[in-house]
Amino acid sequence: MINKFSSIQLSVLQYIILSTICCIINLKVDAQCNVNFDLGNDTTLDCGATLTLNAPSGLDTYEWNTNATSSSISISQAGTYYCVATQTLSNLVVNGDFSAGNNSFTSDYNYGTGGSYGLLSNEGEYAVSSNTSLVHNNFPSCFDHTQGNSSGSMLIVNGSDTAGLKIWEQTVTVQPNTNYSFSTWGMSVIASNPAQLSFSINGNQIGNDFNLSSNTCNWEEFAVTWNSGTSTSATIAIVNQNTAPTGNDFALDDITFSDVCYYTDTINVSYPPSPNLTLNGPDSICEGQDIQITGTADIPGSTITWYPGAITGDTLDLSPTSNTTVSAIATSPANCNSSVKQSQITVLPQLVIEAFGDDTICNGDTASIGFTSNSNNINFHWEPGGSTDQNLDVSPSSTTTYSILASNALGCSDTDSVAITVNPIPNVELEPVSKICYGDSVSVTATSDVANPTYHWTGLLIDTNKITLKPTYDTTVSVTVEKNNCWSEPDSTSISIQEIPDINRASGVTTCPGEEFVISTSSNLSDATITWLPSMLNGEQYISSVDTTTEYRYYANVGDCYSDTLNVYVNINDTCNCEWKVPNVFTPNGDGMNDEFYFVDQSGSCSLTGFKLQVFNRWGRLVWESNEAGEKWDGTNKSGKCDSGTYFWKLTFSNGFTSSSINESGSVTLLD
Questions:
Q1: CA distances from 95 to 189, 255, 353, 366 (A)
Q2: Across the beta sheet with 353-356, what order do the strands follow?
Q3: By its UniProt entry, which InterPro entries does this protein fall under (predicted)?
Q4: How far apart are CA 250 and CA 160, in angstroms?
Q5: If one looks up domain 580-670 in CATH, what number appears?
Q6: Who's near 633: CB < 8 A, 6+ residues apart?
Q7: 597 closest CA partner among 573, 576, 575, 623
Q8: Left (φ > 0), alpha (ψ -120 to 50) or beta: where does 207 sit?
Q9: Would you tell me which CATH number, out of the four given (2.60.120, 2.60.40, 1.10.10, 1.10.1060), belongs to the domain 509-572?
Q10: Which residue, of 32, 83, 473, 511, has the fewest CB within 10 Å?
């Protein structure tokens, strides 16, 4: 690589060469230049990365081949970088900051004599002060360069109209063949006609004239390097070349003259290699198709970016609708880019297939499907089935998607499909209904093998799986279900009506405790079953015996059809023991006492049936007879009054509360 240098850089290099030669001769000076000036090892940058180059800090000046003047620079380009730095060792000028006042220098100017404007009222005079306004009423208030406040001092000059006068001069001892740095700071204190300063050593001008700006109180630096050659002393002079009497007022401060060390180092910064990118993919596709382009870089780990879109990845998926150009760049892990690669994609006219015939059918029905195309010369077939008919009828047993696959001579293909949804034929089943009783309601429930069908009941406008009827005669119920317009076969069930049996009311019974009784009833239906409660005995008669009055309930039923339940009471007569007597003697004399013979119910509870009381004389002739228990014999018959004597009686009856019969006889005496 060819390094380019500015004129300043060339001058610096000349000084470096001279200094190197001088350092070989003058070991004393070289011994003081002991800074380890190192910019670091040569390095390789990631492409696009920034690197900061750091020269050792603390030196007085820095000059890089990038024209930077700081101790550090930031770079982002490969190349060779070097820096030249200077170090001022000591200031040989005495009282260069004028802190010692008007001492250690000479001047062709007079020290201020004063006047109407102050100490520097006259041209060609100078003064040492901390503030310019203190020496001239028209000077602004400016502080020195060293301190920048009232504690510092500076040389303030009212410029002369005479050329060549030395403003400041001082002689210092120097080492032969040594580089020295001279610098000073100056500023204008009046804006008009700024000073034009020149600098010389041993009568020879160093550097160019130093023209101060018209900005007042603005310190500016002049600096130059001087080589002593064979000189052992240096007389330094500052001259103002501006002779205008108006304006031309200025100040000087911080005059330095120092021996200098020069340092330099070089660093090479390079970039890693850039990746090579290869693109692979078809150069033509059919309209509507997808395409994938693959990029391959020869540096592992490289990232491929596709344009337009700035999409990253090793592959790019596209669906172009027109001829398209795709660009890509590979970026290595070191951020180095490949050259741009492009892929040209030609889009061929698309084959368009449109299938028709989407339909919903019931299982067992037929649907018609087909397709249209924008091209006549095509190869095609249907899947499933492999048919090559453009239109066909299908009868799938389950929901099926039929796809038509077609291609043309250009290699373009297309596919489309139709869906035939097959709904099942629903089934319906009615729960069987047993015989119901006349007047009862009955629920009929239908079940189906499909979810949420529509129910259609014969003769009823109702959509429900359960209906409630109250038929009065034998009936047949039918139902069909429909789902997605698919109908089931009907199912039916018969409902038979059972007549409700009637039962006759039984008569109550009064009986004696422990005596057997019979209760009887009947129903209007011959096949009815009569049940007695609580014994649950069946039959038209109920035979039993009880000790206490008891209620019996009874009903008739045929299957689940029941009559009303009736009740009957068996009452117990607590005086069922019939106690009786007849007199054994009576006196029918009319005195009102024991005048009659009759049957006496001593218990008062005899229930007499078949009653007969007969009286016979001693010859066995019937003289009196009664069939009424309350009838009495007064001792007479149809012939008149009977004779006194012994008669014989015969008594027969049945007790109505028992099953016993009485057949008794005895004698009775009739007395007058």
A1: 22, 8, 102, 120
A2: 353-356, 367-373, 391-394
A3: Ig-like_dom (IPR007110), T9SS_type_B (IPR026341)
A4: 11
A5: 2.60.40
A6: 596, 597, 598, 615, 624, 626
A7: 623
A8: left
A9: 2.60.40
A10: 473
pLDDT above 70 for 525: yes
Q: Collapsing DSSP states into helix, strand and coil, what is residue 478?
A: strand
- Give the Cα separation of 37 and 28 in Å (integer): 19
Q: Please give, one letter per residue, the 3-state secondary structure of 374-397.
A: CCCCEEEEEECCCCCCCEEEECCC
The reply to whether 353-423 shares the fold of 277-348 is yes
127 neighbors 111 (Cβ within 8 angstroms)? yes
Residue by residue, DSSP assigns 283-343 as SEEETT--EEEEEEESSTTPEEEEETTTEESSEEEE--SS-EEEEEEEE-TT--B---EEE
pLDDT surpassing 60 at residue 21: no
CATH number of 277-348: 2.60.40.10
Quick one: average pLDDT of 258-272?
91
Task: Supply the DSSP symbol for 134.
Answer: G
Per-residue pLDDT at 19: 43
Inform me whether the pLDDT recorded for 18 exceeds 50: no
CATH superfamily of 91-260: Galactose-binding domain-like (2.60.120.260)
* DSSP conformation class of 79: E
pLDDT in tens, 317-327: 988 888 999 99
User: Is the pLDDT score of 203 beyond 50?
Assistant: yes
Please write the tens of the pLDDT for every residue from 60-103: 889 999 999 999 999 988 899 999 998 888 899 999 999 999 99
- Model confidence pLDDT, tens digit, residues 165-182: 999 999 999 999 999 999
Q: What pLDDT is recorded for position 22?
A: 39
Q: How confident is the model at residue 1 (pLDDT cuts 50, 70, 90)?
A: very low
How far is 134 from 118, CA to CA, in rounded Å? 7
- Chain center to CA of 347: 42
